[in-house]
Amino acid sequence: MSGWLTVARGDAPLIVSVPHAGTDIPAPHDTGMRSIALSQRDADWHVDRLYAFARDLGATMIRTAVSRSVIDLNRDPSGASLYPGQATTGLCPITTFMGEPLYEAGAEPDDATIAARRAAYFDPYHAALAAEIARLRAMHPRVVLYDAHSIVGVVPRLFAGVLPQFNIGTNDGATCDPALTAAVAAACPEPRIVNGRFKGGWITRRYGRPKTGVHAIQMELAIRGYADEAAPDRWDADRAAPMQQTLRAVLGACLDFAKGRA
Hints:
Helix content: 25-40%
Low-confidence stretches: none
Strand order of the largest sheet: 1-3-2-4-7-5-6
Shape: globular
Radius of gyration: 17 Å
Distance between the termini: 33 Å
Number of helices: 6
């Protein structure tokens, strides 16, 4: 564990990655930002708390305290869009999901700033993730990498209408065995969708290699399922409890698959 990166190791064949729950914007990365609150708005609120029970299952958890507005750990570091032709945010976002500018005009991160942020945060996060995959793969014939996310359910710039509660992404089946996808989907009540608007980000696509025993799957939750989307920064344990019960079944399905029980 460092000041911004936490790796809590377990020995079960399951890694839960939480790249977007952080809200810290350490200096000097706040320079030129219009508002800290605005820059924190698109966090995957409380996803680390939501999945805290995963440690009891023996899972490894990797998370960062740094805001995605500083650098997005789930984007292609080359800058290539994961969703060509659709609105999205970049490696070092300059707008919110709604399209609001994060920086004062002319203060957006330049190439040198982006490179420094990548070296400070992106590269160490992915080095830690790769190391944990290798460690667990040496212990188990199959490992599941579960990338945990959430978002508000209505973002017209990103998708039409209201997002389903459970959004499962496997890059159209490329990042994991179909049996894992089916098991995770079966554990999720409706409304759910597989490879809809969210097909899995850089983490899922980069590490999901079913032929080598590494099966990656992304879960994008609509925040309304566990928190008030009008005030998502407020954690309500009672409201979150039913969602945690469902997610316990989801991670149980991941473990059953990894251990060959499904």
